[in-house]
Amino acid sequence: MTTLPLTFRAPRRTAPPTHLADLDEAGRRDAVVAAGAPRYRADQLARHYFGDLNRDAAAMTDLPAAQRETLVAALLPELLTEVRSVSCDDGDTRKTLWRAHDRTLIESVLMRYPDRVTLCVSSQAGCGMACPFCATGQGGLQRNLSTAEIVEQVRLAARAARDGALGGPARLSNVVFMGMGEPLANYRRVLDAVRLITAPAPRGLGISARSVTVSTVGLVPAIAKLTAERLPVRLAVSLHAPDDELRDTLVPVNQRWKVAEVLDAAAGYAEATGRRVSVEYALIRDVNDQGWRADLLGRILHERLGPLVHVNLIPLNPTPGSRWDASPAPVQDEFVRRVRAAGVTCTVRDTRGDEIAAACGQLAAASRS
Fold this sequence. Notes:
- There is one protein chain.
- Helix content is 36%, strand content 18%.
- It has twelve helices and twelve strands.
- It has helices at residues 25-34, 41-51, 65-75, 135-139, 147-162, 187-198, 220-229, 244-250, 259-273, 291-305, 329-341, 362-368; strands at 81-88, 93-99, 105-113, 116-120, 124-126, 141-144, 174-177, 212-216, 234-238, 277-283, 309-315, 345-348.
- The strands form two sheets. Strands 1-2-3-4-7-8-9-10-11-12 form a ten-stranded mixed sheet, with helices on one face.
- The longest helix has 16 residues, at 147-162.
């Protein structure tokens, strides 16, 4: 059994350069003045970044030519450099590996569906939650991402979608914090990023808060803090087992906050926001896919969350050399049937990107090896 440390602090590394998205409006204006320009130039830079999805100094023709490069260097430094992008699903799925200023590697995945375009975004480089079936968890935590590094993933994805990276012009409509890392272990930066992602342009990227999902393995105090924020984002709880005995092994943080505590916190969030909670459940062959566990999952969710819960079954995308494997289709179908029989809605996530190492952390791991 894995025992977690008493804190979830990331190892200290060199901080990324300060970016417009890391500063409030007063801080942006002070930075512009320090760069030798009038305060109002900060608003112009924000319009280029959030409204036009642009950080190219040459295109900022409303700024004095002599100041463009200086202002971009001061407030819009390059945070992420594309290392590699791979596509599949007839071009509807595009996974990108990014390198940060300190050579840290992170991933994001852009996906087109018939009714939406979704970005799966990372909040940390690596992850400290140590879930044994997850490629990111196997690699450990390197560091928290800055607010701007999170927002920059979204800006780059929105620009790529707009410019036809998925086969034709499209608008990024949904953001899910289900990439590398535990979002609520980087709480303040994630919340600041959510506010910028959802604020209308030119103060933010203008994505509806109801189209943003924040996931967690069950950090109960952080769920309580998120509840108090009263943001209408969706909460997703990565449960993966309905019983403490198994979840202690699959999701080691369960050694601190048990299933009942996690679900009570989730129920509090649902009640406060009116938003249905998504329960994520990676179905693993002969580990957590038994019929009795489906019955137990349905019963406890129905009792604790009632109609304000939806189970999202995830066919496991095995990592190379892993002993974990996906459940067979008949077992998966029976699991769905049993959860629904308890009165809980349950669907199977549309699998994307099996052939491009789309499971979280796989591309970064392959690039480090």
